[in-house]
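Lab notebook, bench 4. The sequencing result for the construct came back, and we need a structural model before the next group meeting so we can plan mutations. Quick request posted to the team channel:

Model the 3D structure of this chain.
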Amino acid sequence: MKKAILCVLIVSLFGCGKSDVPLSTPTPAVAPSPPPLTKEQREEIIKEATSGLKLDERDKIEKISFYGAPKRDFGDERLTAYISVPDDQKPILRIYAHYYGDSWIFFDRLKVLSDDAVVYEKSFSRGDVTHTNNTAGVFETADYVARADDIAALKIIAEAKQSTIRLSGDEKRRDYELTKLEISNLKLVLDSFAKMSKL
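Done. Here's the predicted structure in token form:
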């Protein structure tokens, strides 16, 4: 009798040994990490990725190279991007928003309209925007690291037929249609940055 009860319990619990669920789950195989790039391989990737860009500056002390589009109109460029490449580290995409005029905006907000839809908005604290002036006028600049959502927005702007940037402060604002040069430069820098994903 005890044996019959025990058998019933075993059958109910384990289905007489015919369970569809294995008693132990096999450990999934983990792909080995690729070997680190050699200095030569790294330099070759950077050389290929930046072939259409210009080396704007090499900071020997901080060991960082800065790459940007080769053709730029610094006075009229309102929105652009460039790549910072620290030695032995991943590249960083940076965004450069700029205003030049004869009176201050003190902008702390940026908004971009692309093909009739607002695709990008950014807010800045007072310390994030630099302010300088000379006999030519006043200059306000925000220079910041691009996050994933910033990069996604820049890609939309680079593919749009028409984009307008608005720089606004508490009392003033300025709207500018992005030029063909600004759009092509954004696309060029984004493409180069994507090629550096191997680093």
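Residues 180-195 form the longest helix (16 residues).
Will bring this to the meeting.
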